[in-house]
């Protein structure tokens, strides 16, 4: 997928290098799909009750909650679907990264849980950031459409 010149150091065992090369695209695809499915799973209850997080989002300073709560639900649920299938991958990854960075703030600062509370959100934000930078690969709807942001 990448247009960047491969600068990896050659493998000491050439057969292993061929295996890594063969698994490069499938591994990235699996990461994108798992990330998307995890976001869909996390966002599904919010889609069922899109106004259920009004108190939480207003507690974080996002007013009016009646606007931000459904936006949160849609971002997690539909952003996850878009990531999983690789459609509008960069915009979906950008939106979900913003949500995840807010959850880092929520757990680390607001809930005073520090790194231990924010760890999952940090990891997921790093994964979604990867897809902002990288976009989708050839195993995606973006690729099938011949378009990528």
How would you describe the overall organization of this protein?
The protein contains six helices and no strands. It is an all-alpha fold and 149 residues long. The protein has one domain (26-142). The longest helix is centred in the first third of the chain and has 35 residues, at 14-48. It is globular, with a radius of gyration of 18 Å. The mean pLDDT is 91.
SSE topology:
Blueprint (H helix, E strand, L loop, with lengths): L13 H35 L5 H6 L5 H21 L3 H22 L3 H21 L6 H5 L4
Helix pairs in contact: 1-3, 3-4, 4-5
Key features?
149 residues, mainly alpha, 6 helices, globular, DoxX, DoxX family protein
Oligomeric grouping of the chains: single chain
Mean pLDDT: 91
> Biggest sheet, in brief?
none
Class inferred from helices and paired strands: mainly alpha
Count of the separate structural domains: 1
Give the overall silhouette: globular
Number of helices, where a helix is a run of at least 4 consecutive DSSP H or I residues: 6
From the alpha carbons, calculate the radius of gyration and give it in angstroms: 18 Å
Distance between the termini: 14 Å
- SSE pattern, N- to C-terminal: HHHHHH
Beta-strand fraction estimate: under 5%
* Secondary structure: helix percent: over 70%
List unreliable stretches of 5+ residues: none
* Number of separate strands: 0
């Amino acid at each position: 997928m990448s247009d960047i010149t491969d600068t990896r150091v050659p493998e000491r065992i050439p057969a292993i290098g061929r295996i890594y090369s063969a698994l490069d695209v499938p591994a990235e695809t699996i990461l994108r799909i798992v990330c998307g499915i995890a976001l869909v799973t996390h966002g599904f209850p919010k889609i069922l009750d899109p106004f259920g997080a009004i108190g939480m989002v207003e507690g974080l300073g996002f007013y009016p909650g009646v606007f931000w709560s459904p936006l949160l639900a849609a971002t997690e649920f539909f952003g996850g679907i878009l990531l999983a299938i690789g459609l509008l991958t960069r915009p979906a990854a950008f939106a979900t990264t913003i949500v995840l960075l807010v959850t880092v703030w929520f757990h680390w600062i607001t809930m005073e849980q520090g790194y231990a509370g924010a760890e999952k959100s940090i990891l997921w934000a790093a994964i979604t950031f990867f897809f902002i930078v990288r976009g989708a690969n050839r195993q995606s709807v973006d690729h099938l459409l011949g378009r990528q942001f």
